């Protein structure tokens, strides 16, 4: 069972979640060339300075005191990648929020960067990595169990286990994305940024639509939950 978990985790990490690939025409200047490097770097540092303490405070408020809320922000500078951001854990369980250079450069304003950061931090606060692992484990057990009951050979049982893990891992990802958008809205607001303006980042990405077992919710559903949460939070004096 255990060998499945790093695989699923790796897939999840590779897929990232703040972004889906931005379409660019081959041979054309990239649509996401964005702002000059110096401005982008300065904006990133400012957003980290304001969002990280708020995310840490929100993490401590919502989780037990023993939880690891000391976010480490890392910049992924591997070349040739699409804009991406993701949340993961290091070996000691410290939460890592990773952003690559194309993402840092492709945001239109600091609100967008703050929203992506709030969203990724929220995945940690809400325990999504652990929940995806659990969903994958359940899927693997059910599928391999069903295959074994029908008298499948060892190879087929193993394939069923892998398929079940992948199916399980994808079952609730759209819900987790919307949950992270919702808590991310609060973190963004508390850090002094505009989450509705920030979430407009999604409107420039290809809309994944509402595909069965797709990993991302439709852009309209994301904007809707951000708008509603921001309204409620502002009315409640957040
Ligand atoms: Zn996400």
TrEMBL record:
Pfam families in the cross-refs: Peptidase_M48
InterPro entries named among the record's database cross-references: Mito/Outer_Membr_Metalloprot (IPR051156), Peptidase_M48 (IPR001915)
Superkingdom, taxonomy of origin: Bacteria
Domain Peptidase M48 positions: 81-228
Gene Ontology MF term list: metal ion binding; metalloendopeptidase activity
GO biological process: proteolysis involved in protein catabolic process
Needed co-factor(s): Zn(2+)
GO cellular component: membrane
Cofactor detail note: Binds 1 zinc ion per subunit.
CDD domains tied to this protein: M48C_Oma1-like
Signal peptide bounds: 1-18
Keyword terms: Hydrolase, Metal-binding, Metalloprotease, Protease, Signal, Zinc
Cross-referenced PANTHER family: METALLOENDOPEPTIDASE OMA1, METALLOENDOPEPTIDASE OMA1, MITOCHONDRIAL
Family membership noted in the UniProt record: Belongs to the peptidase M48 family.
Protein name: Peptidase family M48
Organism: Salipiger marinus
């Amino acid at each position: 069972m255990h060998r499945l978990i790093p695989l699923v985790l790796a897939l999840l990490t590779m897929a990232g979640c703040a972004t889906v690939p931005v379409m660019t025409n081959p041979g054309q200047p990239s649509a996401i060339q964005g702002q000059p490097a110096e401005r982008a770097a300065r904006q990133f540092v400012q957003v980290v300075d304001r969002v990280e303490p708020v995310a840490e405070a929100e993490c401590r408020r919502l989780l037990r005191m023993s939880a690891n809320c000391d976010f480490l922000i890392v910049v992924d500078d591997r070349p040739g990648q699409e804009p991406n951001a993701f949340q993961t854990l290091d070996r000691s369980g410290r939460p890592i929020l990773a952003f690559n250079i194309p993402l840092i450069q492709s945001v239109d304003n600091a609100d967008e960067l703050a929203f992506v950061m709030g969203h990724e931090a929220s995945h940690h606060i809400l325990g999504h990595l652990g929940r995806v692992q659990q969903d994958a484990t359940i899927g693997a057990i059910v599928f391999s169990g069903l295959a074994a009951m029908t008298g499948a050979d060892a190879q087929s049982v193993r394939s069923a286990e892998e398929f079940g893990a992948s199916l399980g891992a994808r079952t609730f990802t759209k819900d987790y994305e919307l949950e992270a958008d919702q808590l991310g809205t609060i973190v963004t607001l508390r850090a002094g940024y505009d989450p509705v303006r920030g979430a407009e980042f999604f409107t420039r990405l290809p809309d994944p639509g509402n595909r069965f077992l797709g990993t991302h919710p439709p852009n309209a559903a994301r904007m809707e939950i951000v708008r509603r949460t921001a309204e409620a939070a502002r009315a409640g004096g957040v």
